[in-house]
Amino acid sequence: MSNPARFDAGIAAAADALRRGALVGMPTETVYGLAADATSGEAIAGIYSTKSRPRFNPLIIHAFSIEAAMGLGIFPPLARTLAEAFWPGPLTLVVPRQTSAAIADLATAGLDTIALRVPAHPVARALISAFGRPVAAPSANRSGHVSPTTAAHVATDLGGRVAVILDAGPTGIGVESTIVGLTDETPRLLRSGGVPRDAIEAAIGRPLAAPAEASAPVAPGMLRSHYAPAAHVRLNAETVRPGEALLAFGEPLPAGAEQAAATINLSRSGDLGEAAARLFSALRELDGTAATIAVAPIPDHGLGEAINDRLTRAAAPRG
Ligand code: TXA
Ligand code: MG
């Protein structure tokens, strides 16, 4: 993890930018976020326009501590259990919003629920602490693109429209936070992510349900086609066809790998954590090397569930 002292000047400048209503590229342990003052409707409007993000898609509010998060949402007992088990860390909880919460309505898309996360990354924590208020932060990519795991990815997608990008190197986890919905009796897995499902189920002692069909907001992160590179993505490739790029996992490589236009192995040793950390960079790198990226089968347990979720959306027919 990066040492926040190295970032003192940058963090002060970034906190000033947030106070002016400007946007900051903020490293977190999952992916880089596009941070703005969560209490300012104007600052939040800047996030939506910069990302070309639909305004009905609410944002995650990043707080410094469990106590600060509890001032913004109403935490039923299971939410407390999960907050204490996994915060700070790559978990987002969707809970009923406190009516008194000083969060811009635009950040929650006018919903009576709120998505809350206490990030673990020392630079994100230093920024939120210096700013002294919660920040709203979606992933710092153009809407529909692959999430950024380096400062260079943020600059490529959004550079020039962001006041400060804090460069803390590649993110450690590489896929977005797991989102758990706790707005009715049933805990629901709204998005797989950095905390594997089985760890959450073990902490609460019960299984996570699927999202409720009717009540789920139409969220691009949950749309079928999302996280999409320009290239076509072909999943569970047991063989590589001539001219395809190969996204491999473990060894041996699929048949025909020697004729791939380009190859990246997410983890030679078959480590899902390493694979998650490299996933989005690899998709960006392979994009443009071939018309199709063939993806080797990836086990669906642990972090594999989040990896396969993102790959399935990347492979879905475009709208
Ligand atoms: O790891 C992460 O979660 C990163 C880092 C920057 O924290 N952030 C991130 O944000 O992935 P974003 O905006 O790309 O994805 C947030 C997801 C969206 O799918 C949004 O619809 C959902 O959270 N969301 C936000 N508020 C919600 C709510 N009240 N109910 C249901 N879903 C919500
Ligand atoms: Mg996103």
Layout of strands and helices, then pairs:
Elements: H1 8-19, E1 24-26, E2 33-37, H2 41-51, E3 60-62, H3 66-70, H4 77-86, E4 91-96, E5 113-117, H5 122-131, E6 135-136, H6 151-158, E7 164-165, E8 178-181, E9 188-191, H7 197-204, E10 232-234, E11 245-248, E12 263-265, H8 272-286, E13 292-295, H9 304-315
Parallel strand pairs: 1-7, 3-5, 4-8, 10-13, 11-12, 11-13
Antiparallel strand pairs: 1-2, 2-6, 3-6, 4-5, 8-9
Bound molecules: threonylcarbamoyladenylate (TXA) and magnesium ion.
Inertia-based shape: globular
Mean pLDDT: 94
Biggest sheet, spatial arrangement of strands: 7-1-2-6-3-5-4-8-9
Biggest sheet statistics: 9 strands, mixed
The poorly predicted ranges are none
Strand element count: 13
Give the quaternary arrangement of the chains: single chain
Q: Whole-Å distance between the termini?
A: 38 Å
Q: What's the gyration radius in Å?
A: 19 Å
Strand content: 15-25%
Number of helices: 9
Indicate the structural class: alpha/beta
Helix content: 25-40%
| Helix and strand element order | HEEHEHHEEHEHEEEHEEEHEH
Distinct bound molecules: threonylcarbamoyladenylate, magnesium ion
Could you explain how this protein is built, in words?
The protein is 29% helix and 15% strand. By secondary structure, it is of the alpha/beta class. The structure holds threonylcarbamoyladenylate and magnesium ion.
